[in-house]
Design a protein that fits this description.
- This protein is α/β, with parallel strands linked by helices.
- It folds into 2 domains: 57 residues, Winged helix-like DNA-binding domain superfamily/Winged helix DNA-binding domain (Arc Repressor Mutant, subunit A); 182 residues, Rossmann fold (3-Layer(aba) Sandwich).
- It contains 10 helices and 15 strands.
- The strands form 4 sheets. A 7-stranded parallel sheet has the order 6-5-4-9-12-14-15, with helices on both faces. Strands 1-3-2 form a 3-stranded antiparallel sheet.
- Helix 8 packs parallel to helix 9.
- GO terms for molecular function: DNA binding; DNA-binding transcription factor activity.
- Keywords: DNA-binding, Repressor, Transcription, Transcription regulation.
- This is Transcriptional regulator of sugar metabolism.
- It holds the Pfam family DeoRC.
């Protein structure tokens, strides 16, 4: 197996497993441990995984955000509930911004029922879902494609956002610490901040597992959002912190 194919195979395996040992990968791909270490070094340098003792992981940490494909498979039912609840904040004829997150991106499937709409996004999954849909005026932000985030970022995307205005923006974040949102990647943070600045109303969609986490870069205080949607109420101490900070929290509980 060629090295590029093997490295893609390692990533495909980690998307399902989350983590793996060097020994497991060496056995699975029929190569030496040294070859696996070289592959993992290359993938880590590209920002696609993080090496841990004895192996590798694509699970998030304070410095590392997971691959888009891995995040898509996490908390699926909760993310669907959040998207269904958040879409009630949209009215036909409005302009909507959707960020790169897998949680906010789930809104796309509900938008056909609210046409006509203008949708602005850097999320390639949303672009693919809405391209060619009648009644959807789709504005795809330019920029450099990130395989890890499955979206577009950088100077071109930022310049476009500075020239646009929207009625409502839907964002996700990888970590909620105290009454603030954080993210591991500074370029992603910049895009999200510009989306917030471009919108009259702003909503954050985060599954309950994001609470109590931290990441390297401060995104914004949660009170900057008109509402924060989550699928399960945070622990009492965390809820007290949010209430004291004036955060509007909407818990979309599982009816089952």
């Amino acid at each position: 197996m060629k090295s590029d194919n093997r490295r893609q195979g390692i990533m495909d395996f980690l998307v399902d497993a989350g983590a793996a040992s060097v020994d497991d990968l060496a056995s699975r791909f029929g190569v030496s441990r040294m070859t696996v270490h070289r592959d993992l070094d290359e993938l880590e340098e590209s920002g696609l995984l993080r090496k841990v003792r004895g192996g590798a992981s694509i699970q998030p940490s304070s410095l590392f955000e997971s691959d888009f494909r891995y995040r898509q498979k996490q908390a699926i039912g909760e993310k669907q509930r959040l998207a269904a609840a958040a879409v009630t904040m949209i009215e036909p004829g409005q302009t909507v911004i959707i960020d790169d997150g897998s949680t906010a991106g789930g809104i796309a499937r509900y938008l056909a029922d609210l046409r006509p709409l203008t949708v602005i996004t850097n999320n390639l999954a949303v672009i693919q879902d809405l391209a060619g849909v009648a009644g959807i005026n789709l504005i795809a932000l330019g920029g450099q494609y990130s395989k890890k985030f499955h979206g577009f970022f950088g100077l071109l995307a930022e310049a476009s956002l500075r020239s646009l205005r929207a009625d409502v923006a839907f964002l996700s974040s990888s970590a909620i610490h105290g009454a603030s949102a954080f993210h591991q990647d500074q370029e992603v943070v910049q895009a999200k901040r510009l989306m917030m600045a471009a919108a009259t109303r702003k909503y954050l969609l985060v599954d309950h597992g994001k609470f109590g986490r931290s990441a390297l870069h401060f995104l914004t205080d949660l009170k900057a959002f008109d509402a924060v949607f989550t699928g399960r109420g945070p622990e009492p101490g965390m809820r007290d912190t949010l209430d004291a900070a004036g955060v509007s929290l909407t818990v979309v509980a599982d009816k089952d």
